[in-house]
Amino acid sequence: MGGVTGRQATAGRGTTGAVGAVVVLLLAALAATVSPASAQSAATIASERPGVRGTLALTVASPAMRAPMRVDVIPPRDPSVPHPTVYLLNGAQGGLNGSSWLDQTDVVDFFAGKNATVVIPVGGQASYFADWRADDPVLGHQKWATFLTKELPPLMDARFGGDGRNALAGISMAGTSVLQLAIEAPGLYRAVGSYSGCAQTSDLVGQAYVRLTVARGGGNADNMYGPVDDPAWVRNDPYVNAEKLRGTALYISAATGAPGPYDRIDGPGIDGNVAELVSRIGVGAVIESSVRRCTVALQAKLDRLGIPATFSLPPAGTHSWPYWQDSLHRSWPLFARALATG
Question: Is the whole-model pTM more than 0.85?
Answer without folding.
Answer: yes
